[in-house]
Each structure stands twice: as structure tokens, then as C-alpha cells.
Amino acid sequence: MYVVEGIGYDFIPDVLSRDPHDVEQWIKTADEESFEAVRKLMRLEGLLVGGSSGSALSGALRWLKSDAGKRIAE
Questions:
Q1: 21-33 core/surface letters (b: 16 or more CB in 10 A; e: else)
Q2: What is the mean predicted confidence (pLDDT) over 53-61?
Q3: pTM exceeds 0.90, yes or no
């Protein structure tokens, strides 16, 4: 069971493009890391956001730490 709205469902929305020209990599996040990212945003930035924002942030941070993210930073 997932707590973050829309995470973990077994269907693909019609509006989601899976074309490799649009998306190069998929990153799945867990509820725990998503809500930890939400708490950081609230504590450090004063932003009142939900779990899906935490999922986006935790995925982005994990990607930035990856080899692909390191290439962007160079």
C-alpha cells in the first residue's frame, strides 16, 4: 500500500508519454523518502507541499547524485 497519492497504481495514464525522446530514465520513489523530502522542504524552505512534491524532489536529488546527473553538473 502506498500513502502518496497516485504512487504505486498498476495503470499507466493515457497522457503519459513513454517515448524515449521524452523520458530517458524512470526513478521510483518510496513513501518514506518522499515524506522525508516534504519535511525538508517545510523545515528549510517554508514550503507547504504534499507527498507527490516530495516524490519529485527525492527522485530529482537521487538522479543528480547519479552518473547522469554528474554529467549535467560538469
A1: eeeeeeeebebeb
A2: 93
A3: no
